[in-house]
Amino acid sequence: SHGAALAQPRAVVPRGELDAEERATIALFERARDSVVYISTRQQVRDIWSRNVYSVPRGTGSGFVWDNAGHIVTNFHVIQGGSGARVTLADQTSFNAKLVGAFPDRDLAVLKIDVPPSNVYKLPPIAIGTSRDLQVGQRVYAIGNPFGLDQTLTLGIVSALNREIESFNGRTIRGVVQTDAAINPGNSGGPLLDSAGRLIGVNTQIA
Question: pLDDT for 19-36, tens place per residue?
Fold first, then answer.
């Protein structure tokens, strides 16, 4: 026959166990993911013809749960200029947020959401670490929630320490941790973790 022979189905090759590093990365992500939230802000805009005031979307970013009381940490620039913010938790429930603290010189802000006492299990606080003893070359992980649908994970190393960057209000931020972990704009405000899954920084700018 001159017809082409039908391709035969092929068996899937078994891959065996994931290696120890992969298993550790997966476990780290599973532990930390529910602590990372999506933040959206709105802005009041006045229609010049009708004089009516409308609330329109302004910006989005990530943040993370600080405690069971509903405090959420993010970048100041994520909420800057907004007239209101909304926080979406890992299970897709959303809450209006109040701005309760801001430190523009370090590009940090703290929001507060009121979660019913029966639902505080939805607020797993991020594990806290320290950036004082970081070493160039150690592994770091960046988690964000850039679209409000699911968390993303990237990994890299500490590329440099004690860098300086300019904050969004023009001030110099010193003591910055530089990493080669891929960070996109929607990951701003999300946590940077060490290999023990502990918070060591807040993802703030892309160089």
Answer: 999 999 999 999 999 999
- pLDDT over 80 (residue 143): yes
71 flagged as catalytic: no
User: Per the residue annotation, which of 35, 40, 62, 77 is the catalytic one?
Assistant: 77
Confirm whether 107 is a catalytic residue.
Answer: yes
Instruction: From 21, 33, 35, select the one nearest 124 (Cα to Cα).
Output: 35
Distance from C-alpha of 141 to C-alpha of 198, rounded to nearest angstrom: 10
- Given a contact cutoff of 8 angstroms between Cβ atoms, the answer to whether 28 and 127 are in contact is no
Distance CA 82, CA 60 (A): 10
Mean pLDDT in residue range 45-61: 65
DSSP 8-state class, residue 77: H
Instruction: Tell me which of 35, 40, 188, 194 is the catalytic residue.
Output: 188
Is the model's pLDDT at 55 over the cut of 70?
Answer: no
Strand-pairing partners, residue 99, are: 111
Element (H, E) at 32: helix 20-32
Q: Which tokens hold the place of 30?
A: 């599973």
Residue 123: CB atoms within 10 A of its CB come to: 21
Determine the Cα angle at 107 with ends 38 and 58, to 5°: 45
94 is catalytic: no
Q: What is the mean pLDDT of residues 174-186?
A: 89
Mean pLDDT across 185-201: 94
